[in-house]
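Quick one, probably user error.
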């Protein structure tokens, strides 16, 4: 394994994905198309699905490495410093000439609902060659996480290198995919909107999510997780035929931005450190971590740290 910039054991979780600077505006509600409304607060946070999921896992105590690109600008420098502060190995976070660091424009309503527009910037330059440079780190990892904020080719290449468990978060939805996106990952994880787009089926409740999960299994997935926000999650597995639904704890939602990333980071931690648990219990615990994250503002700042693990131990004990 290549020596990193940080002195961490980086063989547990490797994440291939995006880094975004989040420009977040809070408002009483989300505006209608063409409407201008007054907001109440503006903040700047570190985001991007790849980095979010990496930091979410790292904050729970698992060792992580991120493979990503930032711009050769002040935001890129700040982002790398933020990752290192969260004890993420940044050996493969590349600065990119001629591109800005990716940004996300986010509007958050008082209900906790959000709307997000992303501008990829340097993220779109993350390449198969970057993945190949980190091939030994990927091969030696216990778990690999990927998303679709970077190119499909990058995700496919990384999954082909992976010798452990892999989670592909199929977000955002892309129409330009081949069957390998379903066939390669151990778990294909999407929310209800993405599940509907990939399957062309309505997904508005638990029953419809179970039907969509079965459809994704028929398309080649080994395992499928469909997250339903405050309603919980549905899991289906091809090999065993197992399908189950897990409820999410009821909490007062302040900001749902990044809840899905908190879920995946927690699931990664559990699959690496608590893999003796039944899958249903791991999904239940991941839902608990995601629910906890929505009780605070922000994305990465809202992710719980190792203190929540004491609460997780009490479930089913």
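Nope, works fine. Designed sequence:
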């Amino acid at each position: 394994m290549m020596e990193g910039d940080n002195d961490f054991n980086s063989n547990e979780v490797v994440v291939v994905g995006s880094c975004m600077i989040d420009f977040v505006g809070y408002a009483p509600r989300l505006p209608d198309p063409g409407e201008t409304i007054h907001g109440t607060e503006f903040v700047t946070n570190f985001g991007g699905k790849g980095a979010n999921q990496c930091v979410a896992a790292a904050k729970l105590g698992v060792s992580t490495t991120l493979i990503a690109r930032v711009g050769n600008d002040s935001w890129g420098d700040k982002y790398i410093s933020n990752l290192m502060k969260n004890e993420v190995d940044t050996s493969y976070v590349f600065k990119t000439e001629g591109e800005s660091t990716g940004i996300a424009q986010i509007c958050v309503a008082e209900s906790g609902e959000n709307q997000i527009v992303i501008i990829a910037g340097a993220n779109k330059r993350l390449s198969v060659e970057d993945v190949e440079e980190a091939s030994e780190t990927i091969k030696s990892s216990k778990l690999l996480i990927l998303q679709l904020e970077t190119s499909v080719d990058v995700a496919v290449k990384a999954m082909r290198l992976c010798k452990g468990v892999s989670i592909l978060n199929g977000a955002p939805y892309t129409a330009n995919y081949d069957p390998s996106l379903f066939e390669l990952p151990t778990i294909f994880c999407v929310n209800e909107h993405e599940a509907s787009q990939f399957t062309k089926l309505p997904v508005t409740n638990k029953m419809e999510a179970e039907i969509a999960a079965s459809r994704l299994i028929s398309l080649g997935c080994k395992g499928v997780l469909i997250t339903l926000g405050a309603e919980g999650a549905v899991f289906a597995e091809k090999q065993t035929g197992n399908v189950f639904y897990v409820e999410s704890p009821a909490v007062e939602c302040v900001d749902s931005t990044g809840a899905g990333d908190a879920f995946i980071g927690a699931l990664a931690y559990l699959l690496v450190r608590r893999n003796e648990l039944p899958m249903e219990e791991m999904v239940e615990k991941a839902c608990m971590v995601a629910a906890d994250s929505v009780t605070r503002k922000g994305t990465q700042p809202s992710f719980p740290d190792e203190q929540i693990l004491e609460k997780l131990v009490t479930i089913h004990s």
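The chain has eleven helices and 13 strands.
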